[in-house]
Amino acid sequence: NTGLHLRKRFVLSMWLDFDERAKQITVAQTKLRREQLEELRAQLNAFVFGFDEGIIADDIVLASAIYRHLCSFEQLPLDRMITMVKYIRKNVKHLELLPDENFLENGFVYFLPVDTDIIDKEKVNQHFYDFQATRV
């Protein structure tokens, strides 16, 4: 399943980033590092679960996940919340239409812009070349 593979890659990328940042904590602070990594693990699991639920369910559940995990329960103008829900929905649909090779063979993912559904192919291609250059 491509979606499951993509989610696993996302979580792995996040953990690699967390681990890299945690290495900056000195050896004397290992207990603090362990506690912070445990907190990050719990937050990441809640984030993934919340957005999975929101994507599967309706816009209200998705808006709730946005409110909890992206906005940290802070007030957000209704038009911005609507924009965020629409943006996520259109990109989920977009990702479902992309060939599996984008994820499985080269690990490259691109998203539609907020304000349009038109893909700037030149920009995407340049990002892909930049992405490939970082993998060497």
Automatic annotation (TrEMBL):
Sequence ranges assigned to domain Ubiquinol-cytochrome c chaperone in this UniProt record: 11-109
InterPro entries given in the database record: Ubiq_cyt_c_chap (IPR021150), Ubiqinol_cyt_c_chaperone_CPB3 (IPR007129)
An individual GO BP term: mitochondrial respiratory chain complex III assembly
Signal peptide range: none
Pfam family, one: Ubiq_cyt_C_chap
GO CC field: mitochondrion
Family affiliation: Belongs to the CBP3 family.
Name of the featured protein: Ubiquinol-cytochrome c chaperone domain-containing protein
